[in-house]
């Protein structure tokens, strides 16, 4: 008998016992003469003298156990593996959690042993450095870069921004769920043994080949996402909006062909069509000038100015159709005509409407913003909103900035969150929330 204490390359993946098919627990027996596939037996089957095919009970054997020191006395091989597994699970530096998972060592013992034997050990330093260089060179092209900012966003789970990024985690350069996420399930229970029949072995190899093809498809999709920069979907959509509407429609139709061409070729194709559209529009404009008898660009400027004035006059005439819906209400009709007259005169119309509710009570008149601080920072729509909801400009600007910051942090904002954030009348909060949604300052979650 060879009294040898050793363990396999991966002690967490032991095959079952050849005698009773139970999962092996240390110590167990390995036949030293049967091979090349290891012939393993539990202690119960070994003591019964189990024999199978070429294996005989009088063969030489090895006792497989990890209950022996490796790096220093007091630390068995099993404890070394448990320490490495605990550091990988809990993270480097979380020695309290590492000791809790180890159960057999204190926090100080785990930290001193790991730093002494795995960090400051000169025997391992050159090996670890070479392994790190090999890993960096092998996986240099594997991570999908995120370049819009130095600090990539970390959206909360199931937020709008997280869904827009398809569950991509920039800090880990990986996705929360891979394409064909359960492809490994068909492979996890396959075990190749010597006594497999030819048909069974061929079936197992076919399953492995299918799994490899699914992995290739997963990598192909990642490569398309990385090459075309599809991680930052919002930035991609902003770039798409830079084109005219006709080119945007073409962009949407041709997006499905991006997978068969490179990103440079695809962008050149879209840019060439955008240039073609601009040239055709310029040609039509020059042809219009020629039909109008214009032969110089100076005359063309005068023609464009007169054309805009004519279109404005035509638009004002058609605006009278809007009065028809107010024809039954004399007060509303008079207010609308006064507002249009003020617009024609270039004056911002003042809101002087006094509405009457269904219960017969008059609502408060609109707030006069004249002289209030912060009014100059508002546009016309915001001024009208502050007048209607009777909110001073300074408070509105503060609420607006708070809602925008929360929307950016969450990737979207719900009305309930807005009401919890700003403690004012719920009806005013709804009007402010709807206004910011309509103007595009925030997005719904």
TrEMBL record:
<keyword id="KW-0539">Nucleus</keyword>
<dbReference type="GO" id="GO:0051726">
    <property type="term" value="P:regulation of cell cycle"/>
</dbReference>
<dbReference type="Pfam" id="PF04433">
    <property type="entry name" value="SWIRM"/>
</dbReference>
<dbReference type="GO" id="GO:0006357">
    <property type="term" value="P:regulation of transcription by RNA polymerase II"/>
</dbReference>
<feature type="domain" description="ZZ-type">
    <location>
        <begin position="12"/>
        <end position="69"/>
    </location>
</feature>
<dbReference type="InterPro" id="IPR043145">
    <property type="entry name" value="Znf_ZZ_sf"/>
</dbReference>
<feature type="domain" description="SWIRM">
    <location>
        <begin position="358"/>
        <end position="445"/>
    </location>
</feature>
<dbReference type="GO" id="GO:0140672">
    <property type="term" value="C:ATAC complex"/>
</dbReference>
<dbReference type="InterPro" id="IPR017884">
    <property type="entry name" value="SANT_dom"/>
</dbReference>
<keyword id="KW-0863">Zinc-finger</keyword>
<dbReference type="GO" id="GO:0008270">
    <property type="term" value="F:zinc ion binding"/>
</dbReference>
<dbReference type="InterPro" id="IPR016827">
    <property type="entry name" value="Ada2/TADA2"/>
</dbReference>
<dbReference type="InterPro" id="IPR000433">
    <property type="entry name" value="Znf_ZZ"/>
</dbReference>
<dbReference type="GO" id="GO:0003677">
    <property type="term" value="F:DNA binding"/>
</dbReference>
<keyword id="KW-0479">Metal-binding</keyword>
<dbReference type="Pfam" id="PF22941">
    <property type="entry name" value="TADA2A-like_3rd"/>
</dbReference>
<dbReference type="GO" id="GO:0005634">
    <property type="term" value="C:nucleus"/>
</dbReference>
<dbReference type="InterPro" id="IPR036388">
    <property type="entry name" value="WH-like_DNA-bd_sf"/>
</dbReference>
<dbReference type="Pfam" id="PF00249">
    <property type="entry name" value="Myb_DNA-binding"/>
</dbReference>
<dbReference type="InterPro" id="IPR001005">
    <property type="entry name" value="SANT/Myb"/>
</dbReference>
<dbReference type="InterPro" id="IPR055141">
    <property type="entry name" value="TADA2A_B-like_dom"/>
</dbReference>
<dbReference type="InterPro" id="IPR007526">
    <property type="entry name" value="SWIRM"/>
</dbReference>
<protein>
    <recommendedName>
        <fullName>Transcriptional adapter</fullName>
    </recommendedName>
</protein>
<dbReference type="GO" id="GO:0006338">
    <property type="term" value="P:chromatin remodeling"/>
</dbReference>
<dbReference type="InterPro" id="IPR009057">
    <property type="entry name" value="Homeodomain-like_sf"/>
</dbReference>
<dbReference type="GO" id="GO:0003682">
    <property type="term" value="F:chromatin binding"/>
</dbReference>
<keyword id="KW-0862">Zinc</keyword>
<keyword id="KW-0804">Transcription</keyword>
<dbReference type="Pfam" id="PF25299">
    <property type="entry name" value="ZZ_ADA2"/>
</dbReference>
<keyword id="KW-0805">Transcription regulation</keyword>
<feature type="domain" description="Myb-like">
    <location>
        <begin position="75"/>
        <end position="118"/>
    </location>
</feature>
<keyword id="KW-0158">Chromosome</keyword>
<feature type="domain" description="SANT">
    <location>
        <begin position="70"/>
        <end position="122"/>
    </location>
</feature>
<dbReference type="InterPro" id="IPR041983">
    <property type="entry name" value="ADA2-like_ZZ"/>
</dbReference>
<keyword id="KW-0238">DNA-binding</keyword>
<dbReference type="GO" id="GO:0003713">
    <property type="term" value="F:transcription coactivator activity"/>
</dbReference>
<dbReference type="GO" id="GO:0051302">
    <property type="term" value="P:regulation of cell division"/>
</dbReference>
């Amino acid at each position: 008998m060879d009294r040898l204490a050793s363990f396999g390359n991966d002690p967490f993946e032991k095959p079952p016992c050849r005698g009773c098919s139970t999962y092996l627990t240390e110590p167990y027996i390995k036949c030293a003469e049967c091979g090349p596939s290891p012939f393993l037996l539990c202690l119960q089957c070994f003591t019964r003298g189990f024999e199978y095919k070429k294996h005989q009970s009088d063969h030489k054997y090895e006792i497989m156990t990890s209950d022996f020191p490796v790096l220093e006395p007091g630390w068995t091989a099993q404890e070394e593996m448990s320490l490495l597994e605990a550091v990988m699970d809990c993270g480097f530096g979380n020695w309290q959690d590492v000791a809790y998972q180890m159960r057999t060592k204190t926090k100080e013992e785990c930290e001193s042993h790991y730093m002494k034997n795995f960090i400051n050990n000169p025997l391992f330093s050159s090996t670890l450095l070479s392994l790190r260089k090999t890993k960096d060179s092998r996986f240099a092209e594997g991570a999908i870069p995120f370049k819009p900012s130095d600090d990539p966003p970390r959206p909360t789970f199931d937020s709008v921004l997280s869904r827009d990024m398809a569950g991509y985690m920039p800090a880990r350069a990986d996705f929360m769920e891979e394409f064909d996420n359960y492809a490994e399930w068909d492979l996890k229970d396959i075990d190749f043994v010597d006594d497999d029949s030819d048909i069974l072995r061929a079936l197992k190899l076919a399953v492995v080949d299918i799994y490899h093809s699914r992995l290739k498809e997963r990598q192909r999709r990642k490569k398309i996402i990385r090459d075309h920069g599809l991680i930052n979907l919002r930035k991609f959509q902003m770039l798409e909006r830079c084109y005219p509407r006709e080119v945007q429609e073409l962009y949407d139709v041709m997006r499905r062909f991006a997978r068969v061409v490179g990103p440079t070729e695809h962008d050149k194709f879209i840019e060439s069509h955008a240039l073609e559209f601009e040239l055709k529009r310029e040609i039509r404009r020059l042809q219009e000038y020629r039909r109008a008898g214009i032969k110089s660009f100076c005359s063309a400027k005068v023609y464009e100015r007169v054309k805009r004035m004519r279109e404005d006059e035509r638009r004002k005439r058609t605006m009278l159709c809007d009065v028809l819906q107010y024809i039954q209400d004399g007060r509303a009709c008079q207010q609308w005509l006064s507002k249009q007259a003020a617009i024609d005169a270039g004056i911002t119309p003042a809101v002087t409407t006094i509405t009457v509710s269904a219960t017969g009570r008059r609502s408060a008149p609109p707030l006069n913003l004249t002289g209030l601080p912060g009014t100059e920072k508002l546009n016309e729509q915001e001024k009208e909103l502050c007048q209607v909801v009777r909110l001073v400009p300074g408070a509105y600007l503060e609420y607006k900035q708070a809602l925008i910051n929360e929307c950016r942090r969450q990737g979207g904002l719900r009305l309930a969150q807005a009401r919890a954030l700003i403690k004012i009348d719920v009806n005013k909060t709804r009007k402010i929330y709807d206004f910011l949604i309509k103007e595009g300052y925030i997005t719904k979650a």
